[in-house]
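Title: Prediction job returns without error message
Component: structure pipeline
Severity: low
Priority: P3
Assignee: unassigned

Description:
Job completed but the reporter wants confirmation the result is attached to the right record. Sequence as submitted:
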Amino acid sequence: MSVAFASRRPIAYNLPHNIDFAGKAKLTDETRKGCKHMSNLLIKGGTVIDGTGSAGRKADVRVSDGRIAEVGPGLASDGEQVIEAEGLVVTPGFIDSHTHYDATIYWDPMLDPMTQHGVTTVVGGNCSLGLAPIRPADREAQIEVFSYLEDLPGDLLNQSIPWQWEKYGDYAHAASQTRLGLNLMTYAGHSQIRCYVMGEDAWTRTANADEIAAMVELLDEALAAGALGLSYSLFDKDREGRPVPSSVAGDDELDALIAKLGEYGATFQFVPGDNADAIIKQLGWLGEMFGRHGVTGFYNILLHMDTQPDRASRIIACLQELRDKGTIIHGMVSPRFIELSIGFEQSICFLDLPAWNSFVQSPLEAKRAMIDDPAWRARCREEADTRRSTMFPFKAPEMLKIAAAGNEQCREWIGNTLAELHAARGGHISDMLADWVKENDFDTSFALAIANTNADEVASLLKCPVGIISASDAGAHLQMFCAAGDSTLLLTKFVRERGDLSLEEAVHGLTARQAEAFRIPERGELAPGKVADITIFSLDELEYGGEKSVSDMPGGISRLTRDPGGYRYTIVAGEVVQQDGQATGALPASWLARAS
């Protein structure tokens, strides 16, 4: 779809204010005027949970010039602006270490609704993809891959991103000049590095010695500029079904790149295959290199699947065995029930079904011609019979629930499954689906619950020693699901309602544990000298709302979002960036370099 943009300026968000905080903790009247630019604060009377896992204690927090100056009881005001926090919890700002907000900062510097869920730092550049290094001549092709895999409109990326860089160092400099409402840190994408060095050959062959040396040099530059490390994928494919360039790399290339990470103490984020056997094999293979070079790995994503009930336990056992040998790989865990909304326009969900994928990626007029083509239908039937697809499982149609139907006469089927529709209509399931799509004039969608459907199993993952709370995927797949708000879900469902974790344990997982593992500098703990990234809330007031669609992106493009979570204040570098669910307009943050 081609979209014309009237303006490339950031959106001026008018966020919903649907939570009543009247009569509760607030800025004192004399300080409210300056709430957008507060770097000297005194937070009075709250229960401080400092992020380390230690028990909460009643204390005040003094912030001076954007840093924490004192934490203790009975601190006297020294002319600072005061936040009365009696009855509230005061914690470090939350960290979300698996997002795809790299591009979003150029049209939404607040990364809505992240600060409304207590988040003050996000990590991008995941899954081997990012915005640098990219040669100008390769930009269009690289945007095509990024936009497809992360479900972001290519026109939006082309027109909103300034593209003032080629190498990662120049990208980091440009991003650090972009004012944001929260901190952004990024990995260097392995697929980007391969394409920069090898061009189109990056998709088809291993690298020679000179090419490997050139990749190591690019990674060295990125790490010197502050990249968190290297991201890598064995799972993702482009619109044509080609595995991303990461997956073609040989052992020599990966070993050389991981060795460079070891020199910097940097980390390696990776997405392996999609079944337990493949994942365990790949964990062992990569783990051997991590161990040799002293590199920490982050595996995305450790989850529970009803269709593979022993998957998580087998992978945890593998991670624990590696850890016993001295190799640290964290399994990234989301608390979210993972459900996909699957439509028939530009969806990534047909990746493993080439014939259906070609249909979904085609413009509407091509779809109209293709839908009755006997040859296309024959290929679709063959794929449905022989191929295994995780995101559109023809072999498990009872998992696919009809979510929308453009034809009014078909809407009685909403809420039923593809299996029930097939039982009623008969024929080959692929042909039946094609007829259904045509009958609804190509306007229909399905919901697929793919993982984390069992809360008890999710709780065990959140608590397991080889797991780390992360993996939200926020900023991507904006029409498939809303991944923002994992922090609020964790605190409401698994702390307040179920009691699987204490509040101190959950805050530790959202803050200091991630800051230490990812080498996020000077954050994650409420202690003197740390940057004053702070979240203030009452656990009883938090609310994890449902997804909703808004059309507030440039060009009127829609996205799924979530209402504010009920946090009183989110503070970044001593400045209030959201209060009572409303963004204040303060932009005290930018791209952030890895701790050296």
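Comment from assignee: result matches the submitted record. Residues 1-36 have pLDDT under 50 and may be disordered.
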